[in-house]
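This section describes the prediction task in plain terms. A model, or a person checking by hand, is given the sequence of a single protein chain and must write out its three-dimensional structure as a string of tokens. No templates, partner chains or ligands are provided. The sample shown here is typical of the held-out split.
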Amino acid sequence: MAMSDIIHYPILTALFTLVSFVAMIWLIINARGVARLFARRTNDLEPGPAPRGVTASARAVWIAIILFVLGGFGAFLMLFLSGERQELDAIDGRATLSAPYIPPAG
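The expected answer:
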């Protein structure tokens, strides 16, 4: 059994996209924690005032950033692999095309 038969690309693409989307929403909601993480004395980025204990920790922000990036890369990888699989199916003649694939002569 080939690896392409085991992996179901649309489900994995949706899963990676969902992980990235949820991480993005969390980062937007916790923008003060992101600003606090990247704030330096030399730039104009300052986190706004917030009640004590409400802002996200630096560790949680980094985890969300990593999930956002990995989710995006995973979704693009699954889209790339599914396109490659469709191309191979067309070459092998297993795709549902109106005319069969005929390789060029020579």
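For orientation: The chain is about 65% helix and 0% strand.
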